[in-house]
Design brief:
44% of the residues lie in helices and 10% in strands. The protein is an alpha+beta fold. The chain has three domains: 11-68, Muramoyl-pentapeptide Carboxypeptidase, domain 1, CATH 1.10.101.10; 94-144 and 215-258; 147-212, no CATH class. The protein has a five-stranded mixed beta sheet. A hairpin with a 2-residue loop joins strand 4 (243-249) and strand 5. The longest helix is centred in the middle third of the chain and has 18 residues, at 117-134.
């Protein structure tokens, strides 16, 4: 995770703000994603509480102490499994990396995500239309997932108290995964053990051709919401085919899924 400081914006800033809010050091309901005076003041308060140098910057020592206090940045990997959402660069905002010209790509990918050619074609068409409508590009931080990556994503939602059953349409598959999560929590298993158990349940579903998420079928992606207009994104995604665009909070993103 990059050092966060005044003037930066993006996904990692939003994660840090969510942590500060959870510790009641920063008021909820504020616009997320911009590191301004309120975030700096809350950061200093956290550093002071923890006996750290109160410089208002989120560096390695502050991050390490925050992790001991429950901070879970999205870049933390499941043991042995590449993270599905890793290393957003705060200095290089995605929209500033977009090139211009007839052959330019109007989208960027977070490092380490899996995007097969068929999915990238969809993303490319969506991003081209979005760029034509807004002059801005899109940053994609999640593409195709395997069972472990899907389990990791769902674990975060369960752990943060999201209504995961509602997110997944109260499907029987969602209840199965929730039962695995609940059983692991009751047995006081570690995070990695819980995710592994959830992944095994999801893999069993896949083996019987049942897919809890369109990510598993490589027909869905997650878009960084920083500076993105949801209605315009819906219009752009619809040029590719029948689509659903959902605004989800954990982590904060636009989930785009097309029909098969």
């Amino acid at each position: 995770m990059k050092v966060l400081e005044m003037g930066l914006q993006g996904y990692q800033v939003r994660e840090w703000q969510q942590f500060l809010i959870s510790k009641r050091l920063m008021p909820g309901g504020l616009p997320f994603g911009n590191f301004g005076p309120i975030t700096q003041k809350a950061t200093i308060a956290f550093q002071t509480q923890q006996g750290l140098k109160p410089d208002g910057k989120v560096g390695p020592k502050t991050i390490a102490q925050a992790k001991r206090a429950g901070f879970r940045p999205i870049g933390d990997n499941v043991t042995g499994i590449p993270s599905d959402t890793v290393d957003f660069s705060m200095k290089r905002h995605p929209q500033k990396e977009i090139q211009h010209g007839a052959s330019a790509k109007h989208y960027t990918f977070a490092p380490g995500i899996d995007v097969p050619f068929s999915l990238e074609q969809k993303i490319s068409r969506m991003a081209d239309k979005y760029f034509a409508l807004t002059g801005k590009g899109l940053h994609i931080f999640s593409g195709r997932r395997n069972a472990y990556r899907q389990a990791d994503a769902m674990y975060r939602k369960f752990h943060d108290g999201d209504d995961v059953l509602k997110t997944y349409g109260y499907s029987s598959l969602a209840y199965e995964v929730k039962a695995t999560y609940d059983g692991s929590v009751k047995a006081k298993k570690s995070k990695d053990e819980t995710i592994k158990a959830m992944a095994e349940t999801i893999q069993q579903q896949i083996n019987r051709n049942a897919y809890i998420s369109k990510h598993l079928l490589a027909i869905a992606c997650d878009v960084d919401p920083t500076g993105v207009n949801g209605k315009t994104l819906q219009l752009a995604a619809a040029t590719v085919g029948k689509v659903k665009v959902k605004h989800e909070k954990t982590p904060h993103h636009f989930h785009v899924q097309w029909e098969e």
